[in-house]
């Protein structure tokens, strides 16, 4: 797994690929990319939203700016294990992510407005997390999402990351990271999700590989697809939302 980073700024592009494409792609990537030292690992998340699902409905409306708040763990944590509290923002196609590491029980208490971020040394980061809670005072656990991930990083430029996510599951009940990985699948049959994460321009060698395999970008948000599947099962449809003032951190 890559070294811990608390701030990210990069472009993320997603691709839905078949397992046949995946097998061929891995062969072509071998000279350029190296497998993360932990191999395949389970990633679990709790996404926070308002009772009316404002954040994801706003995101689906394709605004210039959007944000997500989540707790993330690598594996199934106990209350005393460390997890990541993350704010993921996207502005004009560029992804910005801030995160801080803390025990699960402390993260849950902070998001429930029961304690402060005492363990965070970065004052700017503290203000940003607190600004989100102030701007969305009714934020609450909304969806669990888990998936099995294989991650690769560039041999010559380790800022290039390519991830492959399988068995993406979601649920809207039992919203605890400690409850384990189970839920409804959201990937199309015989497909997995590839994400290419780059700080600058895509390398020529990577563009050529994708073109040769006829692999093209796809719009696929795990949280959005889980939400839309949830609505479908409830017999509802997505409600449009109006642009809301961007909070200032």
From TrEMBL:
Residue ranges annotated for the VTC domain, each copy included: 9-228
Protein name (record): VTC domain-containing protein
InterPro entries: CYTH-like_dom_sf (IPR033469), VTC_domain (IPR018966), VTC_sf (IPR042267)
Domain of life: Bacteria
Organism encoding this protein: Carnobacterium viridans
Any one GO BP annotation for this protein: polyphosphate biosynthetic process
TM stretches of this protein: none
């Amino acid at each position: 797994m890559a070294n811990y980073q608390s701030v990210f700024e990069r472009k993320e592009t997603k691709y839905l690929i078949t397992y046949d494409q995946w097998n061929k792609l891995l062969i072509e990537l071998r000279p350029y990319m190296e497998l993360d030292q932990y191999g395949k690992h389970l990633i679990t998340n709790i996404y926070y939203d308002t009772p009316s699902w404002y954040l994801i409905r706003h995101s689906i409306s394709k605004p210039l700016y959007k944000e997500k708040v989540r707790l993330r763990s690598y594996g199934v944590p106990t209350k005393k294990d460390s997890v990541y509290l993350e704010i993921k923002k996207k502005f004009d196609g560029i992804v910005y992510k801030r995160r801080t590491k803390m025990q699960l029980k402390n993260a849950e208490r902070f998001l429930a407005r029961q304690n402060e971020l005492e363990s965070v040394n970065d004052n700017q980061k503290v203000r940003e997390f607190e600004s989100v809670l102030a701007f969305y005072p009714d934020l609450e656990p909304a969806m669990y999402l888990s998936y099995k991930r294989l991650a690769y990083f560039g041999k010559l430029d380790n800022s290039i990351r390519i991830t492959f996510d399988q068995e993406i599951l979601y649920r809207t009940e039992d919203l605890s990271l400690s409850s384990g990985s189970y839920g409804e699948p959201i990937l199309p049959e015989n497909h997995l999700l590839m994400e290419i994460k780059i700080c600058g321009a895509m390398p020529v060698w990577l563009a050529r590989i994708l073109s040769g395999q006829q692999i093209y970008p796809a719009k696929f948000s795990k949280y959005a697809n889980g939400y839309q599947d949830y609505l479908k099962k409830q017999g509802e449809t997505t409600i449009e939302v109006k642009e809301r003032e961007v909070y200032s951190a």
